[in-house]
Model the fold of this input.
Amino acid sequence: MKILIIGATGTIGKAVAERLSEKHEIVRAGHRDGDFQVDLGSKASIEALFSAVGTIDAVICTAGAANFAPFSDLDDAAFDLALTNKLMGQINLVRIGRDHVSDSGSFTLTAGILSRDPMPGSVVISMANGALESFARAAALELDRDLRVNTVSPVFVKETMEMMGMDPTPGLSAADTAKAYVAAVEGDYNGVTLDAPDYV
Ligand SMILES: NC(=O)c1ccc[n+]([C@@H]2O[C@H](COP(=O)([O-])OP(=O)(O)OC[C@H]3O[C@@H](n4cnc5c(N)ncnc54)[C@H](OP(=O)(O)O)[C@@H]3O)[C@@H](O)[C@H]2O)c1
Done:
């Protein structure tokens, strides 16, 4: 398969690209890095990416920005970022990308455990994650040409916890997190949320 990974230069995306590259051709996209650059917050940028990359068999997104901050500190810009980048950016990958993906192709988006297991400070992230899961569940009913769409729900990644100066013990490594993305692309799931710890 030829697989486009948006966010391929990030912590999770790098591990997903490495694992999938054993069996597939990988096209790596990032914001500033990678083979191609894209801004998830811009439909025009997403359209340009798909035009430049050509037909692919699968799209994975391991990007999507949203702020971790107390509810009382969240201003309009914080809600806008989560809605336009993490949520609509990934939804637009499906809306625009469906014309560039081959029959039986797939989309795998990134949500996160904070949708169902929130914590103080996670309001906009939880909001976007929950909406992404619902989007995939509903859009899966209507995609034609046997296209599939799923979300992966990572838990805290060990490497991220280390970067943040936290104890990484309860986290899941990026390499183990990547296994859920492989299952989503190589399996026949449609409209489901794959919880990363279930695929280790
Ligand atoms: N890490 C965790 O513990 C964890 C847990 C649960 C959920 N998640 C979710 O998983 C996703 C990836 O997390 P991560 O920790 O791997 O992130 P990361 O290490 O910060 O990497 C982010 C990736 O997204 C790209 N990117 C940044 N802004 C972008 C934009 N506007 N348009 C397109 N691409 C953009 C970056 O490209 P450049 O390198 O070129 O800047 C990079 O490839 C996020 O949605 C996050 O919420 C992460």
Notes: The two ends are 23 Å apart (CA to CA). The mean pLDDT is 98. The first strand starts at residue 2 and ends at 6. The pocket of NAP is lined by residues 6-13, 30-34, 38-41, 62-65, 85-86, 110, 112, 154, 156-157, 160 (CB under 6 Å).
